[in-house]
Amino acid sequence: MEPQPNLEVFAARKRAGERLVMVTAYDLASAQIAREAGVDAVLVGDSLGMVVLGHETTLPVTIDDMVHHTAAVVRARPGVPVVADMPYGSFHVSPDDTVRHAIRLVKDGGATAVKIEGGRARGAILAALLAAEIPVMGHLGLTPQSVHRFGGFKVQGRGKDAAARLLDEAAFLEQAGCFAMVLECIPAELAARVTAAVGIPTIGIGAGPGCDGQILVFHDLLGLYRGRRPRFVKAYADLGDAAAAAVRRYAEEVRGGAFPAPEHCFHDAPDEDPDPARRAGKG
Ligand code: KIV
Known about the structure:
Elements: H1 8-16, E1 20-24, H2 28-37, E2 41-44, H3 48-51, H4 63-75, E3 82-85, H5 95-107, E4 113-115, H6 123-131, E5 136-141, H7 147-150, H8 160-176, E6 180-184, H9 188-197, E7 202-205, E8 213-216, H10 218-221, H11 239-256, H12 276-279
Parallel strand pairs: 1-2, 1-8, 2-3, 3-4, 4-5, 5-6, 6-7, 7-8
Helix pairs in contact: 2-4, 5-6, 8-9
């Protein structure tokens, strides 16, 4: 039996002063790639609403969407903790209903932990989730579920008062029992101050190099998302262009009659099998 993914990696990395690497994953392919790349943990982010489901924001994502995609990621056996986002509306309800939703992510989805956006306002549900044995990752700064309150996707924590508020919220999340927190789109200097002030790891996205770890959205990192790319993203590949070129070549070959070629065809012979693994006796 494979060992259970262990959240201890978060505390261990912070203790050792080693940076944590996270990436989002939403399905079998992305989770397998994350595993092969050797990341420390994956997040099934509600960003899937934008990069997979085509919504303008993360707000329409449902708990059913999250369970469905979390289960697909877990079936890939990524071998590392799988943190599942609690989508908008799933924890803006009573603590009992919040726990019911989170339990679905753990039981039906197989998540190791959940992530919720917000600070002090989440006190009651944080206590309820932890009492139900569900580890929680916090998320401060540009919390995308607050897009309407923020008036758009804007850098948060600028100025003395906002910085002090964010430091206070971060201290609260640690004291409330979160095992780590995402800091999204805040000034790099503030993220470094938060990181020094709290004992749990900070995972930055658009928060500079002073965090304990970093996370990027899979589709942004690989150049697969055709929408707006935030300035804090570094695309390490242009797989969207490569994929479009491959499909274009396929279309040309179908139209020109070059595909399928003889090696892609079956004939009336008993030793032919469509699955190469089975043909090699591995199936
Ligand atoms: O939904 C998501 O992918 C996230 C990360 C950007 C942190 O919350």
